[in-house]
Amino acid sequence: MTLLLTLALAIPALAKPDNDRGRRGDDDKARVRITIQQNDANDDSRAYRSWYGAQVGRFNEIDRETGERIGDLLQLVADVDRDRIIVTDRDSVRRTVMLTGQTRVIDQSKGPGNGPGYGYLPNGRMADAARHVDKGDLVILNGYLKADGAFVASQIRVMGRVWGWGGNWNGGGNDYRPTYGERAWGEITSIDYRYGRIEVNGSLGRRTIMLQRGGEVLVKGQKQTIQFLRKGDRVVFYYRGETNPRYSIEVYRIVVLEKADACPEGNRPHCADPDYKPGHHDNAPNLPMLEARVTGVSTGTMFNKLTVITNAGKQVNVYVSKTVDAQDERGNRISLLNLRYNDRLCIYYTEVAGVMFAQQIEVR
User: Rounded to whole angstroms, how far apart are CA atoms 13 and 6?
Assistant: First the structure.
């Protein structure tokens, strides 16, 4: 009788799980490793097309060299090698682009300058062009086909980067804000409606700005023409490239501030910025945030997929670029494949066509 009583007391103790990673309470009952599944190919392809469309959709300006919309010309650099790069398009088709000693790279995300110029490829060393192109760059390619069908790039124009590439949204390496180009602000002192010339006195001093073809004017959140701008309006304007004091600035976005709106301060996010969302803490991106518990992880070619349960009890799928890891409260990176069932997550995301894409994931 004593032996049976001892076993009855011991068995529950053996079945009780250990506290994992310092967690305590009811969470520990279900905190086990997740079995990693494989994404459905069609599901993964649909998510990629939505994600890619969001990356290039913000480039609405007209390209001066081709006369076409910039967003329709862009391709994503997926890999960089010694003498070639791999690019993908909206349909996730991967193409090899060869580099030579004459391949020229022009970084137009920082202005229409001459770029690093011409490189060379002596003794099989890395082409100079490969040093100035990185994974995650959005580029426009010019080149020619060789007799064997290989495409050789004569010019690569870097127009920007995809959002949150590598999960780097904060600090000096932030790659979210540069996608908007440059930002300045001021008060309108005069407007020439006939020629579209707007005189502004502000953060750049007294300057003339002109809205480029395909640009937008926002007044009280609504798209308008420059006819709705008035002398005395405080505006925030956006442009790409460095400015020359002797010339007017071509801008692609002008936002009229309300009386209660403060002017931008340094590089801090501002309510006039495209897709602005209030931040949740000092290191959070300006994106909507979802609090949830993870119940599943699956992998695909371009994305991992998290299945989570929100605080409201709803099951949601969130796609995550293969380059993005989660991070703990100390900022240490955690692979999504090492998450545990029922881990609490704060997910900062963008949403396109009903598909959610995680840009930063915090494990709580």
Answer: 11
